[in-house]
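[audit] Reproducing an earlier prediction to check determinism. Same input, same settings, fresh worker. If the tokens differ from the archived copy the diff job will pick it up downstream; this log only records the rerun itself.
[audit] input (163 residues):
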Amino acid sequence: MKAYGREDHVRLAIWAADCAERVLPFFTSALPDDDRPFFAIETGREWALTGIFAMRTIRSASLGAHAAAKLVKAGSPAALAAHAAGQAVATAHVPQHAFGAAYYALRAIAAADQPASLASVAREYEWQVDSVAEGLRNEVRRRVMIGRRGNRATVTIDKSGDF
């Protein structure tokens, strides 16, 4: 598994929270009274800002967001947004979860914008790459990839090697 220094770990956590937050409206429009994905994002940010790590809190927030995803249709933008939040907070535990947050956020956008998903996903992907710390951009490009199947976007994550 690739080792990240403390500074990069924190940068990845903040970036993952930002990626998840951008698609959170998909979830909140479906289940406005369920704040578990929002809480997960905020819990991840709190860890990044304070450095205080309680595994029980991180795990609970992550599992809560993933459980919230099960309340909506699997593969829907709302479910994928909740999964992005669950991965974002899990970044506090393992930095590589940040790539999962980016992956699920891109999939949420693809699912929400079927006719034009390629353009929408490409724009979000560029935002993601531009928003992560410069020293981590190549790692994002290597781990999270977009492609095309017809006019639709595909999103893959590479967990090979030192992931």
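[audit] rerun output stored. Observation attached for the diff report: The chain is about 65% helix and 5% strand.
[audit] end
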